[in-house]
Amino acid sequence: MPDTVAITPGTMIELVRETVLPDLPADFSVGADLFEAGLDSMGVMQLVMYLEERFGKKVEPAELSRANFRSGLAMVALVKGQASGA
What positions does the domain Carrier occupy (predicted)? Predict the structure, then answer.
């Protein structure tokens, strides 16, 4: 069942911190590059599962791109159906 938490760039950064990058700095910018911070393909797959479970967002194969997981801002666009390849 989808979560009722607001879908914001900050929420996405917290999600990344909770699931795949626990050492992400507290002041990590919502527009900063998550791949430069250590996100890898395995982390993306973990995020996909979490987005599907928490927000009810079915991530389509065409949406599995670095661009859609590059930042908190990009992930919000993905969840809201406004992402590249959506």
Answer: 6-83
* Main-chain phi, psi angles of 50, to 5 degrees: -70, -40
Domains, the chain, in order of start with CATH, read: 9-79 (1.10.1200.10)
User: How would you class 30 by CB atoms within 10 Å of its CB: exposed for 0-12, middle for 13-18, buried for 19 or more?
Assistant: middle
- Lookup result for tokens 């908190």: 72
Higher local confidence (pLDDT), 83 or 7:
7
pTM of the model: 0.86
pLDDT in tens, 19-37: 999 999 999 999 999 999 9
Cα distance between residue 70 and residue 60, in whole Å: 17
